[in-house]
Design brief:
CATH architecture of the largest domain: Sandwich
Strand content: 5-15%
Low-confidence stretches: 488-605, 623-631, 733-740, 742-760
CATH superfamily of the largest domain: C2 domain
């Protein structure tokens, strides 16, 4: 049996193939993704952008945020070009390499015909020997050996037999395995060098890289927030369940991301000892004498004073505190989102009775209010019109005095001539900037729909049912309101309006009209108005309305909940329960007066009803099969006009359901980050276990603009859950098989032998 032999690449040709393949796999995707591309200046985009002084200053800040961008771009280009140069050189070397033919053909080597005689073969051999003999031709040793081997294969019977059988006149050879590595790697002289390189890579460099990455990773949460900062948030929100807005700012300023010992980007300058106290003296209500840790630390006081100065739009030293302001404000959005998440988790733990105190609704809403304040650089009590460029308090006083313009929507609905006359102190360019920014601001069509998806009757909410509220958000530009004073206000709800309505108060429904599905003959039409809307609501025990936790994404909290879209009354639900129990004679008699004769005579379902049923079934299936994308969700929506925020910002929104009366949160705030044109969000909670009419609020809050918040009231007429009956097979809870057989005996004349035996 032939042996086996391992061969290393002596001339380096096979190794060149390996390097060529590796470089091609690396260079092609690297060139596609990392080759620097010059962004062409779009003149139309430049005309659409705001040209106010603050926006121009922000563009300069963004251009200077990467000082080594040009050098980095040049180095990337050089590396990619060098990589392709090496690739082409190796490819040229491979193309010039001559390989020995794998097949041995003696006739081709001697240049004779396969039918040639021995005399012709010897003649050809002598002729070639005289030409390629080593004594006459230097460097022709290999060619002469081939000629001699071919002559022997054709003249020697044994050699010819081996050639015909094995393809080699010498007989079967050893099986060889080629290794695409140069032979110098395994040479004894280079063994120490090769071992040293392996040890340096796998025993030193790799552990250091992995250890460094792991050490940096374990210090941060999934949202790139320090775990110590998250623990501090938990501590303060648990300590102070009812937290005011100023207190939230203090907690934000105490984040460890602003501590020079935790973040190397934070610079503690010697000039801070003079500039920070001078800044503190200009800021009222800073509470710099607080003794709590870490609120009393110097980095926390400095950050707090810079935040207050930012919200007051104060000018800072561009060489020192202004740079600190830019770095501090950049980190605020994801820190505020972490604060909202912490309050959510505390609410969940409170419902699970793992913490004694429940954070109030005002606490989490104050955290949300802080986000647009930081983005726009305004206090919450300031007029939202100050978000527009060139407008000052003097302009606002004139607008409110002349036309009572208090928010952005009212200004957008004014006629162009009228608005230009009110802002006549602005130049044409400044007025154009105002219209550019105002026209790109969001106009959200906010509608809700409530249903019980898992129930047969989705329009009736029973006690303890899982209620699903579908929030539909349609985003438009504010420019659609220009000059249209007939459009009612849909946005800009003031905090003074966020109070629970009195009983019997009508709720504005902004949903578009939809075709009403034809109901069955036994279902009584719902009636609004009168005393039926209040329902029968008797005295409740102390813990009657205590919310229940519901799993919805990360943290979902459910309490008493109600909806304005399904005004089903208690009487209607009682009748439906009677129908389910089989007692529908009285209902048919009472409802015959309100139902037309054609409907009563209708016994067969029409094709229209079948289509409606199919449409309803498909809609329910789509709701049930819809999977929320928890990861990989897009974070691109619309750019925000925020000249005081040192980075580009996208529009994000929070939507949630709360109970204003008890000041509790029903569902976890859902962070909408991909609202480009239209987006649907499902908020789920558990209905109260007590029957009655409940009023809740569905809220929409912006994290980028002031005055864009909306809310709609949600009224739920919670019906008493029907008792399980044995009339329905799915509710049959009989314990013994004999009882089930006895019930079937009265319905059918056929009985089994086992049932007869049981009766006997």
């Amino acid at each position: 049996m032939a042996g086996q032999k391992f061969e290393y690449d002596e001339n380096g040709s096979t190794f060149c193939y390996f390097v060529l393949s590796f470089l091609a796999l690396v260079l092609i995707p690297t060139t596609i993704y990392y080759w620097p591309r010059k962004k062409k200046d779009d003149p139309e985009k430049f005309r659409d952008e705001c040209q106010c002084a603050e926006c121009k200053k922000k563009r300069v800040i963004l251009s200077q945020s990467e000082p080594y961008k040009k050098v980095k771009t040049f180095l990337i280009q050089i590396l990619i070009v060098l990589g392709w140069a090496v690739l082409f050189l190796i490819a040229y070397k491979v193309s010039q390499t001559e390989y020995e033919q794998a097949s041995f053909d003696p006739y081709d080597i001697l240049g004779v015909d396969p039918a040639a005689s021995k005399a012709e073969i010897k003649k050809a051999y002598k002729k070639l020997s005289l030409v390629f003999h080593p004594d006459k031709c230097k460097g022709c040793d290999d060619q002469f050996l081939k000629i001699a081997k071919a002559h022997e294969a054709l003249t020697n019977p044994k050699s010819k037999e081996n050639w015909e059988k094995y393809g080699n006149p010498d007989g079967p050879g050893a099986m060889s395995f080629g290794i695409a590595l140069p032979s110098w790697i395994v040479e004894k002289e280079n063994s120490l060098l090769v071992l040293g390189v392996y040890a340096l890579i796998f025993m030193v460099a790799l552990p250091v890289v992995v250890g460094t990455w792991w050490y940096r990773t374990i210090r941060f949460s999934g949202d790139k927030v320090l775990l110590d900062t998250t623990q501090m948030y938990f501590y303060f929100f648990h300590k102070t369940p009812h937290m005011a807005l100023k207190r939230v700012i203090m907690i934000l300023a105490a984040s460890l991301e602003y501590d020079p010992r935790q973040n190397s980007q934070i610079i503690a300058r010697q000039s801070d000892n003079e500039e920070v106290p001078a800044l503190i003296r200009q800021l009222p209500h800073l509470n710099e004498k607080c003794k709590e840790q870490p609120l009393c630390r110097m980095y926390s006081i400095k950050t707090r004073s810079i935040l207050h100065a930012h919200l007051s739009r104060m000018s800072l030293n561009p060489e020192t505190l202004e740079k600190d302001r830019q770095l501090i404000i950049k980190k605020c959005p994801y820190l505020i989102q972490e604060m909202v998440s912490c309050v959510q988790q505390l609410v969940m733990l409170a419902y699970a009775r793992r913490v004694p105190r429940l954070p109030s609704l005002e606490t989490i809403e104050n955290c949300m209010k802080l986000a647009p304040m930081v983005i726009q650089g305004l206090w919450e009590f300031k007029n939202p019109l100050l978000q527009l460029p060139h407008l000052t308090d003097d302009h606002l006083h004139f607008l409110m005095k002349k036309k009572h313009v208090k928010n952005l929507q009212q200004l957008a609905q004014m006629q162009p001539e009228e608005s230009r006359a009110l802002l006549k102190s602005l130049s044409d360019e400044e007025y154009s900037n105002v219209l550019k920014v105002l026209g790109k601001m969001p106009l959200i069509d906010f509608s809700i729909k409530c249903e019980v998806i898992d129930d047969e009757n989705t329009n009736v909410v029973t006690a303890g049912a899982l209620v699903t509220v579908t929030v539909t958000l349609v985003r438009k530009n504010m420019s659609e309101l220009f000059g249209d004073a007939t459009i009612p206000e849909k946005q800009g709800i003031a905090e003074s309006e966020e109070v629970p309505p009195e009983d019997g108060e009508e709720v504005a429904n902004n949903q578009p009209q939809k075709p009403v599905k034809k109901q069955s003959a036994w279902v009584k039409p719902n009636k609004k108005g009168g005393k039926g809307g209040k329902g029968k609501k008797g005295p409740s025990p102390p813990n009657r309305n205590k919310p229940k936790p519901v799993q919805n994404n990360t943290v979902t909290v459910a309490a008493t909940t109600t909806t304005a879209e399904q005004p089903a009354t208690t009487k209607t639900d009682a009748k439906l329960s009677d129908v389910e129990n089989g007692d529908d004679s009285d209902i048919d008699e009472k409802e015959s007066a309100s139902v037309s004769g054609d409907e009563l005579d209708e016994k067969k379902p029409s094709p229209q009803d079948d289509d409606d049923d199919d449409e309803e079934w498909n809609r329910l299936q789509s709701k049930l099969n819809k999977k929320e994308k928890l990861e990989g969700k897009s974070r691109i929506s619309h750019a925000v006009h925020c000249p005081y925020f040192p980075e580009e910002k996208q529009e994000y929104w929070w939507t949630y359901i709360c109970d204003r009366k008890s000041r509790t949160l029903l569902t976890a705030p859902y962070h909408v980050t991909n609202l480009v044109d239209c987006e649907e969000v499902q908020l789920k909670f558990t209905a109260p276990k007590w029957a009655g009419v409940y009023t809740f609020t569905v809220c929409l809050r912006s994290d980028s603009y002031l005055g864009m918040d909306q809310q709609q009231e949600l009224k739920l007429d919670v019906q008493k859950a029907p008792a399980p009956t044995t009339e329905h097979p799915q509710w049959d809870i009989s314990d013994s098989e004999s009882q089930h057989d006895d019930e079937q005996e009265h319905e059918s004349e056929f009985t089994t032998d086992s049932s007869d035996d049981d009766e006997e």
